Amino acid sequence: MLKKQPPMSTNISKQHREELLEKIRQIRSYIAAAPQDANTGNLMQYLDELNKEVNGKKYGLVFEQHREAIDEILETNTPVLTEQPDLFIDNGGEMNFLIEGDNLAALQLLEKTHKDNIDLIYIDPPYNTGNKDFMYDDCFVDSNDTFRHSKWLSFMKQRLDLAIKLLNKKGAIFISIDDNEQSVLKMLCDEVFGVDNFVANIIWQKKFSPQNDAKWLSDNHDFIICYAKNKQIWKPKLMKRSAESNARYKNPDNDPRGDWASTDLAVKTYSAEYDYPITTPSGKVVMPANGRCWMTSKERMAELIADNRIWFGKKGNNMPRYKTFLSEVQQGIVPLTIWFHNEVGHNQSAKQELKRIFQDVHMPFDTPKPTQLINRILEIATNSSSIILDFFAGSGTSGHAVMKFNAEDGGHRKFILCTNNENNICRDVTYERLKTVITGKRKDGSEYNEHYNASLKYFKIDFVPISDKLYYEYADQLLLHIRELVELENGINFNGDNEIAIVLTDEEMEQFVAKEENATKILYRGHDVLLSAEQEEYLKAKGIQVNVIPDYYYNELNR
Q1: How far apart, in Å, are the Cα atoms of 41 and each of 26, 38, 50, 89, 274?
Q2: Residue 149 — very low, low, confident or very high, per pLDDT cuts 50/70/90?
């Protein structure tokens, strides 16, 4: 009797693909055998393109790709930064940056200044709920838009493709999202960051009470998707043990080794060798019940009892329990994938934070994030000198949280925030929030209870036309915006820095070399400045790094 074989799997897509390729081969043979004319070469090229398309991607996220208005602008213009000097906040501490403008252009500029240099990216992009929370090309996308999801994916992919270039090899990205796009965002991130670099899909309890008016189930959580640039290198830091965790440890027997907690000695994995009677200090004989046995051998148990490692209760007649001392446990907790509202805040606490800062001003954010939530991410994903980027800055929670966390642990983290100025959000909300918590004064002059040692520069994105022009025709115009890039790259206020210098003319170069004391480490030299042999030798002897501008930032245009 023949053994029944399992049914073979049939790859229908492969069959269909091979049928299409065979049809292309037949058309190619027909064209090759027919009389040749001026269109033959074009037809063969079209067939090559069809062949590549059919043989293209076989698995992954497939969606209709869309172009944005910003794509058209960037085709004929290059982005630059212009400082708003009247908005500069000089309050010591670390220099931070707020960039107003389209975040795709901002990311292109950051690629020039921070490639492979960002430690942590946190973003809270539009959730694309269909309730006009996502604006695409100056129009809100609603639930009736048949390309709603593909527009969102096109929008996100362009930005994530740039974001991965900014992360350093030990960096990570955390993305807040809800159910509307969570599943496709995960697939998109698998494609951009690599499926092997997926870390976790964290659940954040954003509400603490049931939503009684919900049609189906009460929506009480959002997600935070986490990917590492390189999961083999990136490791989350342990979280501090909470007071509640440590409160479990007591010392009822005054053990000199300190506080301890006890655990059951009986285990389910039965072994006859470990099934034996134990006599308690009161004389009572106890045995493991219900088919269990003790966790160790009779000889080892005697050693543990002699070492006062076994607790029999205050009267000495309880079932034995093993003592674990607080001093022996790991002084940190591996981060969990469920974050509860009482630990990291919730939407309501975030709104209360904003109300305390802005008082009666109407907030344009229905679901802001609490600083506690960002603090949790900072705790597990940054060190004391990390650079943090948020290119969907919204109300500025990330920047607020960074300054707050620095104050708590003495760190020197820096942040870069990017957001558009739709309804004056960047200027009137993001900036004013950061200014309030830095200076300790609200916009109306009233006192606020936070005051941080930090500084902030406000940059706006502008554009220099490059279409139908040669590089030298607009290079000087780019030089007018180089100082901002120098400040952004080095995290400084250029006017007050002695280690960075910019020279744009031969006369300025002569003055630079003539300095009696020169502590400069990096010199940004204008492309028209010609160095003499003596000047080149001077720079070499001093070990000064020389970057030719604007080529250093815009080299791809000078080709």
Answers
A1: 16, 7, 14, 63, 83
A2: confident
